[in-house]
Amino acid sequence: MEDAKKPDITLYSARTPNGIKISIALEELGLPYKVHKIELQKNVQKEDWFVEINPNGRIPAITDTFTDGKTIQLFESGCILQYLVDQYDRDYKLSYPKGTRESYEMSSWLFFQNSGVGPMQGQVNHFLHSAPERIEYSINRYTNETKRLYSILDKHLSASKSGYFVDDHISIADISHIGWVNAAGWAKIDVDEFPHLKQWKERMLERPAVEKGRQVPADG
């Protein structure tokens, strides 16, 4: 890592499974940050000023002062998590040294969530709660796929000596999953069917930084 720089982070977010990933990571790393609450119901994320930060009009996003002294604007939760550990996790609290086996394994599970668990469970939520008509095929398809992915997580965690996804401590791979697994009930998925995943969830929720981070942004 390069010489330490002072963080100047503003988090643009809402209290969703994707949004809380970043606030949890920031709390775990003990970094100072400002919060700009994005009111999704009012479509603030589609306003021109926000689309300048994230052209896709989605949360979360951050701005920070980069090593060249200029502002950097980042979006996509996986990218932001990777940026935070690359720039600020000098003691490897949430990561592992680059180039190590553990670092690559961490990325595998991070991408697994970004490309699998989040999108599939998100589709369950949509067809259960937002679709204009109930389509059983879609509900069943995405529910079964989410459960299949949960079973992979459960099997992996059954062999974990630490109870976390990679090696001996929490990492951004764990943080990426916790908001979604904790919201499984909204998708009408019973985590009790996946005992090792349930134990992991309970372990994660006992962490003070996780509890604090998942309350960001604050109400009001």
Whole-Å distance between the termini? 38 Å
Beta fraction: 5-15%
Largest beta sheet, briefly? 4 strands, mixed
Overall pLDDT level:
97
Secondary-structure content class: alpha+beta
Q: Uncertain runs with pLDDT below 50, 5 residues or more?
A: none
Q: Could you please say which CATH topology of the largest domain applies here?
A: Glutathione S-transferase Yfyf (Class Pi), Chain A, domain 2
Describe this structure in words.
This is Glutathione S-transferase. Belongs to the GST superfamily. InterPro entries: Glutathione-S-Trfase_C-like (IPR010987), Glutathione-S-Trfase_C_sf (IPR036282), Glutathione_S-Trfase (IPR040079), Glutathione_S-Trfase_N (IPR004045), GST_C (IPR004046), Thioredoxin-like_sf (IPR036249). Pfam families: GST_C, GST_N. The protein has 220 residues and is of the alpha+beta class. It has helices at residues 19-29, 48-51, 77-88, 101-129, 136-158, 172-182, 195-205, 208-213, and strands at 9-13, 33-37, 61-65, 71-75. The chain folds into two domains: 9-94, Glutaredoxin; 101-206, Glutathione S-transferase Yfyf (Class Pi), Chain A, domain 2. The chain is 49% helix and 9% strand. The chain has a four-stranded mixed sheet, with helices on one face. Strand 3 and strand 4 form a beta hairpin. It is globular and about 50 Å long.
